[in-house]
Amino acid sequence: MPAAFENLAIAQHRDTLWYATIRGGGYRPSIRRFRVGDYVYLQQTALTTLDVTAGRTILRVREVLPSGVLMLEGRDGVVWKDHVRNCVPCHLPNVDGNMDPSLAIVRAGLRCMLCGSTDQAAHMLVCDRCYRGWHMSCLTPPIDVVPTGRWVCPRCTSEGR
Fold first, then answer.
1. Which of 33, 76, 99, 156 has a Cα at 20 to 30 A from 62?
2. What DSSP string runs through the chain?
């Protein structure tokens, strides 16, 4: 009888450690295989055990690098780079894969390459090659209307990118 209680105590201790590992975020599932064209969510670090770890933005796999890094692309055309460990597959059947550059949002604190100001983010263009900001009024000649499609800055154009 004492041996049974010892085995029960060992099993209970093992289960307690396993539960603490899972709830504490120490358990990572096996690495998934992704293919070009798959849709994924980026995992976020949860602040508490009740937080959802998958983000709400759905990204499309653009390229799979041999190192396990994925080149991801959002609907706004912005390219992300993240490891497969941080990606969760999206199984939604109705994902809209159309690109819409008008969804791009200028990140806070982005400086204009010409004047250096962070003001007037609504009138700032972001280069699709180097991701630098340019005020439409600072360009030569100034641009009045946001161009449709992809936009490449004067610096990338002169460098032949």
1. 156
2. -HHHHHHHHHHHHHHHHHHHHHHTT---PPPPP--TT-EEEEE---SSTTS--EEEEEEEEEEE-TTSEEEEE-TTS-EEEEEGGGEEE---TT------GGG--PPTTPPBTTT-----GGGEEE-TTT--EEETTTSSS---SPPSS----HHHHHHT-
Q: Which domains does the chain have, with CATH numbers?
A: 38-89 (no CATH), 99-160 (3.30.40.10)
- Per-residue pLDDT tens over the stretch 56-92: 678 889 999 888 889 988 877 777 788 888 888 888 8
pLDDT value at residue 101? 58
